[in-house]
Amino acid sequence: MKNNLVTITFMTILMVVAISFESCNNNKKISCINAPVEEVKVSAIDSIPSSLGDDVSFIMLLEPQNTFAEINSIQVFNDTIYIFDKNTRNMLLSFDQNGKYLATFGQKGNAKNEYSRLWAFDVDKQYVYMYDRAKMKMLFFTHDGKFIKAVNTNFRGDSFKVLADGNYLFSMPQSDSHNKLCLVDNNFNITNVLLTFNEKDMDNLANCNLFQRADDRIIYNKELSDTIYAFSDKGKCIKSYCMDFSGLNVPQEYKYDFEKLMEDAKEDSYAYIDDCPMIHGSMMIVPVSYKGRHGVVYYDLQGKTVLNANGVKGEVPNPLCVSGGKMYGWMELDSYRRYGKKSHIPDEVVTFLNTGGRVIVFS
Fold this sequence. Notes:
By secondary structure, this protein is mainly beta. The chain has four helices and 27 strands. The strands form six sheets. The chain has a six-stranded mixed beta sheet, with no helix packed on it. The radius of gyration is 20 Å and the shape is globular. Mean pLDDT is 83; it is low at 1-32.
């Protein structure tokens, strides 16, 4: 995140459209959802200032010996912080609000309570849910790390969110079925197909956070997609936001094949959403790559306008989730060094970072 967010003009058009969803086979009924659409026109963008908010708080993570190597996603539930290292150590751990280590959830292996390739997790009042994409099974744990059960799925999932009624919203990788986003019941049967892959699509497996929870809403976006979907906590699509980057949207042929976009060195030629947006109060925070610059668009959902980044309080580094009205991100030594204004960071936090520690930052 660097420099200024320059001129951004948002033109919001509210309309009602019927979105038709195809079934995954002849036995599934075709579903049709009516949802309002806001068209968001982005005329120009730079990155946000590299300054850390002066009203943020810090939690120093007291990591166990067999610790994670990086932080790919965070969830906070009942004051417990869940840290997911998806790409390197492939493990899920929990900490309290003082940074004390609480539990590790499962481990790699071939036993019923172990996983081969942990791909996503979620938390509700009942369980910690972990999806093993390689073995196509959901593992259920208590909040203190005790294994409860494992249930196989007849599909290969990507990421998911547990809904208020006990069902699931599941993102799918590309397969012969072309299913991209589905409603799944609590027996792991697909009940409705909401989005499908185009036949020419080449799936992008790099995306880490396909979903974000925002109070009673769930936000879904797939990298390079121009559309952000907002669902109710029971899986109903309630609104979508269509991003128009004024002629810089990624062409269809590259949307079909993210690898080709990278191989042709075109990732700096276009503008696109590069991670799942979050909602913090009345703001939608949209991570974007704009011609090689990585930044954030702050969109006021009530005023339907952009907020200048310089006027946004409580900026946190590497934001990964919003919970209880607070935004959570994280910082290690490299990201700490990128910030100019550091005088408000406590000395003990600086010392901790310099000794290789990682901190959760929230506002």
